[in-house]
């Protein structure tokens, strides 16, 4: 989208000319090779750090450098499309800034923009850190479909939260079309309510709170980077012993990302006895996908309103758990780990929580009653766990690739206890290997005492108990080492 130059001359009939072009970029960092903008440097080579102002692009598309010999203007040649609105805002508010750039053949490549106080005064943006927050957010965004201390120390802006009306307004102006269309329209309506004196203070408070929540979420596209199958396998091996078929099935399900660059059409449903590592697998998949994760515990959700939020007509209204998850993650692409899916249909309130889950799982968007907006869910990947799949409705089951997690055999439990569970506990307690001697009879007795339990959770607790007893004997009775034999196991785990 070209921006035109309205030269400040008496000649009102002068032909408008395009002063720069925009280019599309999805780079997450700005460098001299991939800058935010390029300025003309044919007449003068600009310093690495240069201060000045952007001229309001509605009138002039230049940057006014503050040089030793006075103000010198340079035309803007190119701008990353994501930053067009931001530059308009900087120019319109005449905000004093410092550029970091490099002189190259095609111009002065700007890769950092920082706000500085003018004449010792305060900064002009809504809140300290707003500009850096805004730049980081735009760099994390995809290009819009329609184009429109130490000097080099990194400046962090994403710790900032958009809470004030001014900061929210500035953010909406600068974000431009990097926000989804429906959210942009929603934000404008709610901003009008938040500023209005024709509504109640309660309505203004709710509108401002909803805006703060929504604007602090990075609404990303549904493009996902390819995964490394070998790295995926390594992560699964870290979290899960054995179960080769399960690991293979998981990788087969998510590997399609490498071709489509979109999430699989089906989530994962992990079904198996308690303690078999279903939650660990879910966390591992989130690591493989390089996405943040959140958990929904269906056993504690009795009413669908807990998921979809309450209406703003109530003074104590609040968003639902799902919207809270987006807010906590700070982005729209994340893994939803739905624990105990087999209890989703056991709601005790008005309606069935499982019905809300169907909307989430279809990735068509979810309406939150408090936000009063369709929340994009195309970047959500669901991973559910359950103990009994017979308790899950057919519509819910159809949204998942079902993977049965078998229980461990006695031989597998022996390996897990001796090679993983016990060494893990010993390391945490700073016990040396030569201080604990595990005999074959002792190991057999441990497995026998847990023959009727599923999973390995009880085995991990047994390792904790035995190691704690051994440490007590070493510290109190001054023993050099403790032997874990059948007799000791029987005594400690009686």
Tally of strands:
17
Class from helix and strand fractions: alpha/beta
Q: Give me the CATH architecture of the largest domain, please.
A: 3-Layer(aba) Sandwich
What is the arithmetic mean of pLDDT? Answer: 82
Which regions have little confidence, pLDDT < 50, spanning 5+ residues?
1-16, 147-159
What share of the residues lie within helices?
Answer: 25-40%
Terminal Cα span: 76 Å
Total domain count: 4
Strand fraction equals 15-25%
**CATH T-level topology of the largest domain:** Rossmann fold
**Tell me about the biggest sheet?**
6 strands, antiparallel, barrel
Assigned CATH superfamily of the largest domain: P-loop containing nucleotide triphosphate hydrolases
Q: Count of helices?
A: 17
CATH class of the largest domain: Alpha Beta
Cα radius of gyration in angstroms: 29 Å
Overall outline? globular
Describe the strand arrangement of the main beta sheet, using strand numbers: 3-6-5-4-7-8
Descriptive notes:
- The strands form 4 sheets. A 6-stranded antiparallel β-barrel has the order 3-6-5-4-7-8. The protein has a 5-stranded parallel β-sheet with strand order 10-11-14-9-15, with helices on both faces.
- The longest helix has 20 residues, at 457-476.
- The model is unreliable at 1-16 and 147-159 (pLDDT under 50).
- The protein is globular, with a radius of gyration of 29 Å.
- 37% of the residues are buried.
- β12 (366-368) and β13 form a beta hairpin.
- α2 (130-139) runs parallel beside α3 (165-175).
- The chain is 36% helix and 19% strand.
- The protein has 4 domains: 3-148, no CATH class; 179-215, no CATH class; 229-404, Rossmann fold (3-Layer(aba) Sandwich), CATH 3.40.50.300; 410-492, Helicase, Ruva Protein, domain 3.
- It starts with a strand and ends with a helix.
- The protein is built from 17 helices and 17 strands.
- The chain is an alpha/beta fold and 494 residues long.
């Amino acid at each position: 989208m070209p921006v035109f130059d309205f030269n400040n001359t008496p000649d009102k009939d002068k032909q408008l000319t395009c002063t720069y072009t925009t280019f599309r970029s999805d780079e997450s960092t700005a460098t001299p090779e991939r800058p935010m903008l390029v300025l003309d440097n044919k007449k003068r080579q600009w310093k690495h750090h240069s201060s000045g102002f952007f001229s309001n692009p509605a009138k002039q598309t230049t940057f006014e450098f503050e040089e030793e010999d006075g103000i010198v203007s340079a035309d803007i040649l190119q701008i990353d499309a994501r930053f067009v609105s931001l530059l308009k805002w900087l120019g319109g508010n005449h905000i004093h800034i410092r550029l970091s750039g490099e002189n190259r053949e095609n111009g002065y490549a700007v890769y950092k923009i920082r706000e500085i106080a003018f004449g010792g005064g305060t900064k002009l943006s809504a809140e300290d850190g707003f500009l850096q927050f805004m730049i980081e957010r735009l760099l994390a965004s995809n290009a819009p479909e329609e184009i429109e201390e130490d000097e080099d120390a990194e400046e962090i802006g994403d710790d900032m939260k958009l809470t004030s009306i001014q900061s929210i307004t500035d953010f909406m102006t600068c974000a431009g079309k990097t926000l989804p269309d429906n959210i942009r329209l929603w934000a404008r309506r709610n901003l009008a309510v938040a500023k209005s004196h024709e509504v109640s203070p309660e309505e203004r408070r709710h509108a401002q709170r909803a805006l703060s929540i929504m604007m602090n979420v990075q609404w990303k596209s549904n493009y996902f980077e390819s995964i490394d199958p070998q790295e995926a396998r390594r992560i699964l091996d870290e979290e899960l012993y054995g179960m080769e078929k399960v690991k293979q099935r998981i990788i087969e399900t998510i590997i399609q990302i490498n071709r489509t660059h979109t999430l699989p059409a089906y989530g994962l449903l992990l079904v198996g006895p308690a303690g078999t590592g279903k939650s660990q697998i879910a966390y591992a998949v989130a690591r493989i996908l390089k996405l943040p994760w959140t958990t929904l515990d269906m056993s504690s959700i009795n009413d669908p309103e807990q998921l979809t939020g309450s209406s703003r007509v109530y003074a104590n209204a609040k968003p639902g758990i799902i919207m809270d998850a987006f807010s906590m993650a700070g982005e729209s692409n994340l893994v939803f780990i739905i624990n105990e899916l087999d209890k989703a249909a056991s709601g005790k309130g008005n309606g069935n929580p499982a019905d809300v889950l169907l909307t989430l799982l279809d990735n068509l968007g979810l309406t939150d009653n408090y936000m009063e907006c369709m929340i994009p869910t195309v970047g959500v990947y669901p991973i559910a766990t359950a103990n009994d799949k017979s308790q899950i409705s057919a519509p819910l089951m159809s949204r998942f690739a079902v993977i049965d997690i078998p229980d461990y055999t006695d031989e597998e439990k022996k390996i897990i206890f001796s090679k993983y569970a016990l060494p893990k506990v010993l390391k945490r307690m700073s016990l040396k290997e030569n201080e604990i001697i595990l005999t074959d009879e002792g190991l057999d007795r441990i497995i026998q005492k847990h023959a009727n339990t599923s999973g390995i959770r009880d085995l991990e607790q047994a390792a904790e108990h035995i190691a704690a007893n051994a440490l007590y004997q070493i510290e109190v009775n001054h023993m050099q080492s403790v032997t874990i034999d059948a007799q000791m196991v029987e005594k400690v785990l009686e």
